[in-house]
Write a structure and sequence with these properties.
Layout lengths: L8 E6 L8 E6 H77 L35 H4 L5 H34 L12 E3 L2 E4 L6 E4 L2 E4 L5 E3 L4 E8 L5 E8 L2 E11 L6 E2 L4 E5 L9 E8 L2 E3 L8
Helix pairs in contact: 1-3
Length: 313
Protein backbone atom coordinates (compact mmCIF):
# COMPACT_ATOMS: atom_id res chain seq x y z
CA UNK A 1 0.00 0.00 0.00
CA UNK A 2 1.27 3.41 -0.97
CA UNK A 3 1.45 6.15 1.80
CA UNK A 4 -0.93 9.05 1.57
CA UNK A 5 0.72 12.32 0.58
CA UNK A 6 0.76 15.04 3.27
CA UNK A 7 -0.06 17.78 0.77
CA UNK A 8 -3.29 16.24 -0.48
CA UNK A 9 -5.69 18.81 -1.80
CA UNK A 10 -9.44 19.10 -1.42
CA UNK A 11 -11.72 20.85 -3.91
CA UNK A 12 -14.75 22.63 -2.57
CA UNK A 13 -17.38 23.52 -5.15
CA UNK A 14 -20.19 26.01 -4.44
CA UNK A 15 -23.09 26.42 -6.85
CA UNK A 16 -26.25 28.55 -6.72
CA UNK A 17 -29.63 26.79 -6.47
CA UNK A 18 -30.92 28.63 -9.59
CA UNK A 19 -27.91 27.98 -11.63
CA UNK A 20 -24.96 30.18 -12.26
CA UNK A 21 -21.23 29.91 -12.23
CA UNK A 22 -19.64 27.30 -10.06
CA UNK A 23 -17.12 28.50 -7.52
CA UNK A 24 -14.24 26.20 -6.85
CA UNK A 25 -11.92 26.37 -3.87
CA UNK A 26 -8.85 24.28 -3.49
CA UNK A 27 -7.89 23.63 0.11
CA UNK A 28 -4.87 21.71 1.17
CA UNK A 29 -4.98 19.27 4.03
CA UNK A 30 -2.51 21.34 6.05
CA UNK A 31 -4.66 24.47 5.66
CA UNK A 32 -7.75 22.56 6.77
CA UNK A 33 -6.01 21.36 9.92
CA UNK A 34 -4.84 24.89 10.63
CA UNK A 35 -8.39 26.21 10.36
CA UNK A 36 -9.73 23.46 12.65
CA UNK A 37 -6.95 24.13 15.18
CA UNK A 38 -7.66 27.85 15.15
CA UNK A 39 -11.37 27.16 15.66
CA UNK A 40 -10.64 24.96 18.67
CA UNK A 41 -8.32 27.56 20.12
CA UNK A 42 -11.01 30.22 19.60
CA UNK A 43 -13.61 28.06 21.37
CA UNK A 44 -11.26 27.49 24.30
CA UNK A 45 -10.47 31.21 24.51
CA UNK A 46 -14.16 32.10 24.38
CA UNK A 47 -14.92 29.61 27.15
CA UNK A 48 -12.11 31.05 29.28
CA UNK A 49 -13.35 34.57 28.70
CA UNK A 50 -16.89 33.52 29.66
CA UNK A 51 -15.72 31.83 32.89
CA UNK A 52 -13.57 34.83 33.77
CA UNK A 53 -16.47 37.17 33.08
CA UNK A 54 -18.72 35.14 35.40
CA UNK A 55 -16.06 35.21 38.12
CA UNK A 56 -15.63 38.96 37.74
CA UNK A 57 -19.41 39.42 37.88
CA UNK A 58 -19.63 37.39 41.09
CA UNK A 59 -16.72 39.31 42.61
CA UNK A 60 -18.34 42.57 41.61
CA UNK A 61 -21.63 41.50 43.22
CA UNK A 62 -19.79 40.53 46.42
CA UNK A 63 -17.93 43.84 46.33
CA UNK A 64 -21.20 45.74 46.01
CA UNK A 65 -22.69 43.74 48.89
CA UNK A 66 -19.62 44.33 51.10
CA UNK A 67 -19.65 48.02 50.23
CA UNK A 68 -23.30 48.31 51.23
CA UNK A 69 -22.67 46.32 54.44
CA UNK A 70 -19.67 48.52 55.27
CA UNK A 71 -21.84 51.59 54.80
CA UNK A 72 -24.45 50.13 57.15
CA UNK A 73 -21.75 49.25 59.68
CA UNK A 74 -20.42 52.79 59.45
CA UNK A 75 -23.92 54.09 60.16
CA UNK A 76 -24.22 51.67 63.10
CA UNK A 77 -20.85 52.87 64.37
CA UNK A 78 -21.92 56.49 64.14
CA UNK A 79 -25.20 55.65 65.91
CA UNK A 80 -23.37 53.84 68.71
CA UNK A 81 -20.90 56.69 69.13
CA UNK A 82 -23.82 59.14 69.32
CA UNK A 83 -25.76 57.00 71.83
CA UNK A 84 -22.77 56.08 74.02
CA UNK A 85 -22.70 59.34 76.08
CA UNK A 86 -26.40 58.96 76.94
CA UNK A 87 -25.85 55.34 77.99
CA UNK A 88 -22.89 56.40 80.12
CA UNK A 89 -24.97 59.11 81.79
CA UNK A 90 -27.73 56.60 82.47
CA UNK A 91 -25.20 54.18 83.95
CA UNK A 92 -23.66 56.94 86.10
CA UNK A 93 -27.08 58.04 87.37
CA UNK A 94 -27.98 54.45 88.15
CA UNK A 95 -24.67 53.93 89.96
CA UNK A 96 -25.11 57.13 91.97
CA UNK A 97 -28.71 56.28 92.85
CA UNK A 98 -27.67 52.78 93.87
CA UNK A 99 -24.86 54.18 96.04
CA UNK A 100 -27.33 56.52 97.74
CA UNK A 101 -29.81 53.69 98.14
CA UNK A 102 -27.07 51.52 99.59
CA UNK A 103 -26.09 54.17 102.12
CA UNK A 104 -29.73 54.55 103.17
CA UNK A 105 -30.33 50.82 103.48
CA UNK A 106 -27.84 50.41 106.31
CA UNK A 107 -26.82 46.93 105.25
CA UNK A 108 -23.25 47.78 106.19
CA UNK A 109 -21.33 45.76 103.59
CA UNK A 110 -19.84 46.69 100.27
CA UNK A 111 -22.33 46.44 97.40
CA UNK A 112 -19.86 44.59 95.18
CA UNK A 113 -19.73 41.76 97.74
CA UNK A 114 -23.51 41.32 97.92
CA UNK A 115 -25.25 38.46 96.13
CA UNK A 116 -22.04 37.22 94.51
CA UNK A 117 -22.14 33.70 93.12
CA UNK A 118 -19.62 30.95 93.88
CA UNK A 119 -15.98 31.99 93.79
CA UNK A 120 -13.58 30.34 91.40
CA UNK A 121 -10.47 28.70 92.80
CA UNK A 122 -8.20 31.26 91.14
CA UNK A 123 -8.29 34.91 92.10
CA UNK A 124 -10.03 34.20 95.37
CA UNK A 125 -7.81 36.58 97.35
CA UNK A 126 -6.49 39.89 96.06
CA UNK A 127 -3.16 41.55 96.75
CA UNK A 128 -4.72 43.40 99.69
CA UNK A 129 -5.82 40.16 101.29
CA UNK A 130 -9.54 40.73 100.62
CA UNK A 131 -11.79 38.27 98.87
CA UNK A 132 -12.54 39.06 95.23
CA UNK A 133 -15.19 37.50 93.01
CA UNK A 134 -13.99 36.33 89.62
CA UNK A 135 -15.41 38.61 86.95
CA UNK A 136 -17.70 36.97 84.45
CA UNK A 137 -16.51 37.04 80.81
CA UNK A 138 -17.91 39.76 78.66
CA UNK A 139 -20.46 38.37 76.27
CA UNK A 140 -24.12 37.59 76.15
CA UNK A 141 -26.81 38.84 73.87
CA UNK A 142 -25.00 42.06 72.94
CA UNK A 143 -21.83 40.52 71.53
CA UNK A 144 -23.68 37.54 70.05
CA UNK A 145 -26.15 39.76 68.20
CA UNK A 146 -25.94 40.70 64.53
CA UNK A 147 -23.82 43.88 64.33
CA UNK A 148 -26.57 45.56 62.35
CA UNK A 149 -28.99 44.76 65.19
CA UNK A 150 -26.74 46.26 67.88
CA UNK A 151 -28.55 49.65 67.92
CA UNK A 152 -31.84 47.88 68.65
CA UNK A 153 -30.17 45.74 71.31
CA UNK A 154 -28.58 48.78 72.93
CA UNK A 155 -31.90 50.62 72.73
CA UNK A 156 -33.51 47.73 74.60
CA UNK A 157 -30.73 47.77 77.18
CA UNK A 158 -31.08 51.53 77.57
CA UNK A 159 -34.83 51.10 78.07
CA UNK A 160 -34.26 48.43 80.70
CA UNK A 161 -31.68 50.67 82.38
CA UNK A 162 -34.06 53.62 82.41
CA UNK A 163 -36.80 51.45 83.92
CA UNK A 164 -34.41 50.11 86.56
CA UNK A 165 -33.25 53.66 87.30
CA UNK A 166 -36.88 54.75 87.74
CA UNK A 167 -37.52 51.87 90.15
CA UNK A 168 -34.34 52.65 92.10
CA UNK A 169 -35.38 56.31 92.27
CA UNK A 170 -38.77 55.32 93.67
CA UNK A 171 -37.11 53.07 96.25
CA UNK A 172 -34.63 55.82 97.08
CA UNK A 173 -37.50 58.26 97.59
CA UNK A 174 -39.06 55.75 99.98
CA UNK A 175 -35.81 55.56 101.94
CA UNK A 176 -35.55 59.35 101.98
CA UNK A 177 -39.08 59.58 103.37
CA UNK A 178 -38.37 56.85 105.92
CA UNK A 179 -35.11 58.52 106.94
CA UNK A 180 -36.85 61.88 107.30
CA UNK A 181 -39.60 60.33 109.41
CA UNK A 182 -37.04 58.60 111.63
CA UNK A 183 -35.04 61.79 112.03
CA UNK A 184 -38.24 63.58 113.12
CA UNK A 185 -39.28 60.87 115.59
CA UNK A 186 -38.21 61.46 119.23
CA UNK A 187 -35.67 58.80 120.10
CA UNK A 188 -33.07 60.14 122.59
CA UNK A 189 -33.18 61.20 126.23
CA UNK A 190 -33.60 65.00 126.27
CA UNK A 191 -31.24 65.38 129.23
CA UNK A 192 -28.25 63.43 130.45
CA UNK A 193 -30.00 62.78 133.76
CA UNK A 194 -31.09 59.17 134.22
CA UNK A 195 -33.04 59.86 137.40
CA UNK A 196 -36.77 59.35 136.79
CA UNK A 197 -38.74 60.98 139.58
CA UNK A 198 -42.20 60.22 138.18
CA UNK A 199 -43.31 57.89 135.39
CA UNK A 200 -46.10 58.30 132.83
CA UNK A 201 -49.61 57.34 134.01
CA UNK A 202 -51.99 57.84 136.93
CA UNK A 203 -50.38 59.06 140.15
CA UNK A 204 -51.11 61.15 143.25
CA UNK A 205 -50.49 64.82 142.60
CA UNK A 206 -47.46 65.81 144.74
CA UNK A 207 -49.20 69.04 145.78
CA UNK A 208 -52.96 68.27 145.91
CA UNK A 209 -52.46 64.53 146.58
CA UNK A 210 -55.33 63.77 144.18
CA UNK A 211 -55.19 60.87 141.72
CA UNK A 212 -54.54 62.49 138.35
CA UNK A 213 -53.17 61.48 134.99
CA UNK A 214 -49.48 62.32 134.68
CA UNK A 215 -49.08 63.06 130.97
CA UNK A 216 -45.32 62.95 130.83
CA UNK A 217 -42.07 61.75 132.34
CA UNK A 218 -40.27 63.66 135.12
CA UNK A 219 -36.48 63.55 134.94
CA UNK A 220 -34.73 64.93 138.02
CA UNK A 221 -31.55 66.94 137.90
CA UNK A 222 -30.00 70.30 138.69
CA UNK A 223 -30.97 73.81 137.71
CA UNK A 224 -29.15 74.75 134.53
CA UNK A 225 -28.74 71.16 133.23
CA UNK A 226 -28.92 71.21 129.43
CA UNK A 227 -32.09 70.09 127.63
CA UNK A 228 -31.65 68.79 124.07
CA UNK A 229 -34.12 68.19 121.23
CA UNK A 230 -34.94 64.48 120.98
CA UNK A 231 -35.53 64.76 117.20
CA UNK A 232 -35.57 67.21 114.31
CA UNK A 233 -38.44 69.66 114.43
CA UNK A 234 -39.71 73.23 114.56
CA UNK A 235 -40.22 75.36 117.69
CA UNK A 236 -43.92 76.27 117.86
CA UNK A 237 -44.16 77.62 121.42
CA UNK A 238 -41.91 79.23 124.02
CA UNK A 239 -42.93 80.98 127.25
CA UNK A 240 -44.84 80.49 130.49
CA UNK A 241 -47.83 78.16 130.50
CA UNK A 242 -49.64 77.94 133.86
CA UNK A 243 -48.41 75.17 136.11
CA UNK A 244 -45.92 74.07 133.43
CA UNK A 245 -43.85 77.22 134.06
CA UNK A 246 -41.37 78.07 131.29
CA UNK A 247 -42.19 75.71 128.44
CA UNK A 248 -40.90 74.84 124.98
CA UNK A 249 -42.99 72.88 122.45
CA UNK A 250 -41.48 71.25 119.35
CA UNK A 251 -43.47 70.05 116.34
CA UNK A 252 -41.88 67.08 114.54
CA UNK A 253 -44.44 66.39 111.83
CA UNK A 254 -46.73 63.37 111.41
CA UNK A 255 -48.76 64.69 114.37
CA UNK A 256 -45.87 64.36 116.84
CA UNK A 257 -45.07 67.05 119.41
CA UNK A 258 -42.72 67.14 122.40
CA UNK A 259 -43.25 69.41 125.44
CA UNK A 260 -40.55 70.53 127.88
CA UNK A 261 -41.77 72.18 131.11
CA UNK A 262 -40.49 73.75 134.39
CA UNK A 263 -37.49 75.22 132.51
CA UNK A 264 -35.05 77.73 133.92
CA UNK A 265 -34.05 79.27 130.54
CA UNK A 266 -35.09 78.90 126.90
CA UNK A 267 -32.39 78.78 124.21
CA UNK A 268 -34.57 78.85 121.06
CA UNK A 269 -37.23 81.05 119.50
CA UNK A 270 -40.56 80.25 117.86
CA UNK A 271 -40.00 79.30 114.23
CA UNK A 272 -36.49 77.92 114.77
CA UNK A 273 -35.70 74.62 113.11
CA UNK A 274 -33.79 72.36 115.45
CA UNK A 275 -31.86 69.14 114.94
CA UNK A 276 -31.76 66.10 117.15
CA UNK A 277 -29.38 66.73 120.03
CA UNK A 278 -29.46 70.52 119.71
CA UNK A 279 -29.57 72.57 122.94
CA UNK A 280 -33.04 74.09 123.40
CA UNK A 281 -33.33 74.97 127.13
CA UNK A 282 -31.97 74.63 130.66
CA UNK A 283 -33.58 72.56 133.41
CA UNK A 284 -35.37 74.55 136.11
CA UNK A 285 -38.03 74.62 138.81
CA UNK A 286 -40.60 77.04 137.44
CA UNK A 287 -44.38 76.59 137.60
CA UNK A 288 -46.04 73.91 139.68
CA UNK A 289 -42.91 72.04 140.73
CA UNK A 290 -41.48 70.65 143.96
CA UNK A 291 -37.85 70.67 142.80
CA UNK A 292 -35.53 70.99 139.81
CA UNK A 293 -36.59 68.55 137.08
CA UNK A 294 -37.75 68.32 133.47
CA UNK A 295 -41.35 67.43 132.70
CA UNK A 296 -41.10 65.74 129.28
CA UNK A 297 -44.18 64.92 127.19
CA UNK A 298 -44.66 63.24 123.80
CA UNK A 299 -48.01 63.77 122.09
CA UNK A 300 -49.42 62.42 118.87
CA UNK A 301 -52.35 64.36 117.47
CA UNK A 302 -52.74 65.85 120.94
CA UNK A 303 -52.93 62.48 122.73
CA UNK A 304 -50.21 61.95 125.41
CA UNK A 305 -47.96 58.92 124.88
CA UNK A 306 -45.48 57.31 127.26
CA UNK A 307 -42.18 59.18 126.59
CA UNK A 308 -40.14 56.21 127.81
CA UNK A 309 -41.19 54.40 124.62
CA UNK A 310 -39.35 57.08 122.64
CA UNK A 311 -36.05 56.91 124.55
CA UNK A 312 -33.71 54.50 122.77
CA UNK A 313 -30.33 55.59 124.10
Amino acid sequence: MQPRPLNRRYIIMITASRGGPVRRFVVTRASLWSVVSLACVAVVVLLGVAVHALAIRRTAAETVHLTAENQLLAQVHDTLIADLPALRRTAQRAELSFAQLWSKSGVGIEPRMLAVGPFEAEGLVGSDGLARPVAAPVGGAVLDADPLALPLELERIAGDGTQALREVAELLEYFHAAERRLSHTPSIRPTRSIWTTSAFGRRRDPITHEWLMHKGLDLGGQIGMEIHAPADGVVIYTGRRGGYGLTVVLHHGWGLQTHFAHLNAIRVDVGDRVRRGQLIADMGNTGKSTGPHLHYEVRRWGRPLDPSRFILD
